[in-house]
Amino acid sequence: MSLLDKEPVKRAEKFLKNFNQSLEVIVLENSARTAQDAATALVCDVGAIVKSLLFRTENTFILCLVAGDKRCSLNKLKKIKDKKDISMASPEEVKTQTGYTIGGVSPVGHLEKIEIIIDNSLERFNAVSYTHLTLPTNREV
Description:
Elements: H1 7-19, H2 35-42, E1 50-56, E2 61-67, H3 74-81, E3 87-88, H4 91-98, E4 115-118, E5 127-130, E6 133-136
Parallel strand pairs: 2-4
Antiparallel strand pairs: 1-2, 1-3, 5-6
């Protein structure tokens, strides 16, 4: 079975196509386990690879889309959200909330409605790449 035939990839692709028919999901020839692996495969700056990190608060979840060359500061996130109790979501929570497994969390097509915070340092790129897809940074997606 091709990666493009898997349900999570089809779900992300459907979301993208509903938004803009010209957006496409691509498959890398080699597995990209790290942001650096993906950047090498796509011949781009590691910062243009977006990490999708899911956090749990007292009663909700937040997905942070972070540049591949940056880290998500838990202290900054707590301050921004004015919450004291924020932690990384468990692998099970990632799967139930997003429908994706860790290492392959798409920024779109989640099973549950999730607040998304985007790293503003991504503005330095014309396009950014997530697991299996590349998008323009015009804030329209």
